[in-house]
Amino acid sequence: MKSLITPFLLFLSFYSFAQKIEGTITDSNKNPIEGGFVLNKRLDKHSHSNKLGHFIVEKVSKGDTLEISCMGFKTQKIVYRPEQKFLKIVLEESVFQLNEVTISPEVNAQSIISKIDLKTFPVNSSQEILRKVPGLFIGQHAGGGKAEQLFLRGFDLDHGTDINISVDGMPVNMVSHAHGQGYADLHFLIPETIEKIDYGKGPYFANKGNLTTAGYVEFQTKERIKESQVSVNAGMFNTFRTMALVNLLGQQEKQSAYIASEYLYSDGPFISPQKFNRVNVMGKYALELPNQHKINFSVSHFSSKWNASGQVPQRAIDEGLITRFGAIDDKEGGNTSRTNVNFQHTKKVGESLLIKNTAYYSHYNFELYSNFTFFLKDSINGDQIKQKESRDILGMQSEIHKYYTLPSGNLSWQSGVGFRYDAVNDLELSHTLNRTSILERLKFGNVKETNAFGFTGIEYHRGNWLFNPALRLDYFNFNYLDKLNNNQVQSVAKVIASPKLNIIYNPDHDIQLFFKAGKGFHSNDTRVSSLASNSKEVLPAAYGADLGMIWKPQSRLILNMALWYLHLDQEFVYVGDEAVIEASGKSVRKGLDLGIRYQINNWLFFNADMTNTLARSIDEPEGANYIPLAPDFTLTGGLSVTHPSGFSGGLRVRHLGNRAANEDYSIVAKGYTVTDANVNYKFKKVNFGLVAENLFNVEWNETQFATESRLQNEANSVTEIHFTPGFPFFLKATVGISF
Questions:
Q1: Does the structure show a pLDDT above 60 at 540?
Q2: What's the per-residue H, E or C state across 172-207?
Q3: 501/469 Cα distance (integer angstroms)
């Protein structure tokens, strides 16, 4: 009997003093904190909060100290008592310190990098928003109002063809766009409203579908603001900006509302003034309902119009016909607008189930005038073109996240379904004169494009390992009504399956090793897809793999590294500027990404990111297989100061190396190195700021292309670099007031 009683007493002792405890972590506004770090000091064992803010700590004994921390919040310590069945932790915000950062066992732990950068290097303009993604470069080449040209991982992404961009679950990219597939104009997003930037590189994320080949960027706007603010900004080149962010309901517990607005005007450094102006208005309302329901509702409107000097040929400058900031045709430019309505609903069922629904509607107008070839095709009137469309977008996505505690580990299950429907009317490409007369319609019709999708996957945590297999299924229906061909209707439907596998190893909270593999895709323009017979021509696939790590060797130092590979299937591309179909073969891209984040002292931060990439066409012979404009080498870095005295500022450098502008590298797109700086001082409720772009006034080309063109006085055409000059030294001053 004694031999039975002794083990029984030992079991009771263990059960009494080593138990499992659950809880939630929220901020002072009751928002769940994902990635909160919970450490049992006695055992040096840790756990993390999930999307619900929920966490589980195993083998906790009476008197154990639990340390709860998260980047940007004050660390909290709790001594465990057995009568505490469920912990509700509320963390207070604090000055950011890098030693608070932990490497979470998450599939997309790399997004911690953008969180750090957003805290230490605040966004000063809408152009800087996408630069928060390490290795992503942007360029403007049409007067400020056109969506930026993007570069990432050996891709000239054009305006968004191979990168999925969204705001609060609403897609930004425009499929089958008048100017280019995946066109992503992010200018409707007011920088001061951004709460979070999430990003991932590669096609490894089941909840991200079309256009997610090089990666994705997801922005989340603030749910509530603590105080209102107004700012006025003025600078060189007749630049002026005002911004207002107004709290409408104060600090109520169950609901919040604010309105944000922005107006921007600038002529730019060009001989022919840009007369660029942009107006943004946004309102957002959040309500917490009984039984753990929450809704978010936002409405925004954006409009912009501008003139542009276009891309100028190098020979015109060499011959003294124009200066770098002159124009061959200064009648370029355009106007655009977008109205968004977005609704999000989340429901928590107990502490282990989350249901999230997103529904959105956008109305969009676009009209752009360009002249890339001058007098190549029409020696009398010139080659100006108009691209125009009117679009309605309707869509929704419903997700479920379920969390399980198993004897062998923790399991979470994520699944979702949704659809997106684009109705594009009067999708037009025309040859025009002086933005007033249509000389010839080259393409004119209506597009109806539907994408229905579903995805599912699990995340299984066992010890230090995380396994994440997932599958995504997309259905597309492309429909084009050709108004120039007796209203002929062309249509096609295709399905694509995209499997994913992510394996994560976190031996402790200071390092993560990861392997990621998956298949992604981007759809082609409906005007191509509706004529295609092969699924590869409609939905060309991308196959990728990443091997890398995130490592925190010291409390104030974080390093990240990834070796990666991406293979792209053959595709047929619709060239919106010419109304032609251009065939391209298979391609391969591979490279190395490196990053460093270092806190030198309590108020001084340093960061740097380097990418080295090889991008080649597979089907072309050696020496003629370069992918035009694919970046080979990029480097960004800088210092940021946030001093308790109220002084803050930063110094940022970005470098893009020389790269091939055509297939045999006989034409070179010249690289550049540009330095920007800013200083700010906050005295009580007033903030003074000064921003200097291109601090050393270097001469650089922001965007450039190898283009065949003919000037009016030339007998023959010439193929050479055409470019948009980057801004010279540009000084802006800001005064802001909080209330």
A1: yes
A2: CCECCCCCCCCECCCCCCCHHHEEEEEEEECCCCCC
A3: 4
- pTM for this entry: 0.91
Which pair of structure tokens corresponds to residue 90? 């509320």
Cα separation, 682 vs 688, in Å, equals: 6
Residue 582 confidence class, pLDDT cut points 50, 70, 90:
low
For 682, the token pair is 């906050």
Q: What is the CA radius of gyration of the chain?
A: 27
Beta bridge partners of 163: 215
**Which residue from 607, 498, 609, 504 is spatially nearest to 547, judged by alpha carbons?**
504
Beta bridge partners of 227: none
Angle at CA of residue 571, ends 567 and 576, nearest 5°: 125
Question: Which residue has tokens 């031996």?
Answer: 507
Query: How far is residue 406 CA from its own chain's centroid?
Result: 35
Q: Please, where are the H alpha helices in 396-445?
A: none
Q: In sequence order, what are the residues at sequence separation of 6 or more whose Cβ sits closer than 8 angstroms to the Cβ of residue 607?
A: 116, 117, 120, 121, 595, 596, 597, 598, 637, 638, 640
CA-to-CA dists, residue 182 to 158, 171, 423, 569, angstroms: 8, 10, 15, 18
Tell me the pLDDT band of 597, cut-offs 50, 70 and 90.
very high
Distance (Å, whole) CA 715 – CA 706: 19
- Report pLDDT for 10: 43
Mean pLDDT (the chain) is: 89
Mean pLDDT across the stretch 663-685? 94
Closest by Cα among 515, 518, 610, 675 to 153: 610
Angle at the Cα of 450 (from 581 to 174), degrees rounded to 5?
Answer: 60
Tell me the pLDDT band of 233, cut-offs 50, 70 and 90. very high
Token representation of residue 574? 């619709």
Burial of 696 (C-beta count, 10 Å sphere; 0-12/13-18/19+): exposed
pLDDT digits (tens, 9 = 90+) for 41-88: 787 777 778 766 778 787 788 888 888 877 767 788 888 887 777 888
What is the dihedral sign for C-alpha 636, 639, 641, 647? Answer: negative
Helix, strand, or coil (residue 377): coil
Count CA atoms closer than 13 A to 84's CA, side-chain side.
20
| Residue whose token pair is 């380097």 | 610
Residue type, 247: N
3-class secondary-structure state, position 657: coil
More confident residue, 352 or 547: 547
DSSP codes, 263-291: EEEE--SSSS---EEEEEEEEEEEEEETT
Q: What is the DSSP letter of 737?
A: E
Q: Are 558 and 116 in contact (CB under 8 A)?
A: yes
Which of 130-139, 180-189, 399-408, 414-423 has maximum average pLDDT? 414-423
Residue-level pLDDT at 253: 82
Nearest to 388 by CA among 174, 179, 528: 179
The band of 566, judged by pLDDT with boundaries at 50, 70 and 90, is very high
Strand partners, 218: 166, 198
Q: Are 637 and 608 in contact (CB under 8 A)?
A: yes
d(C-alpha 267, C-alpha 342), whole Å: 33
Sheet order of strands, 701-709 included: 312-313, 718-725, 701-709
What distance in Å separates the CA atoms of residue 692 and residue 701, rounded to the nearest whole number? Answer: 18
As a whole number of angstroms, the distance between CA 644 and CA 665 comes to 51
Q: How high is the pLDDT of residue 124?
A: 63
| C-alpha 626: how far from chain center | 27
DSSP 127: G
In order of 228, 268, 502, 550, 647, the CA distances from 689 in angstroms are 18, 20, 44, 34, 10
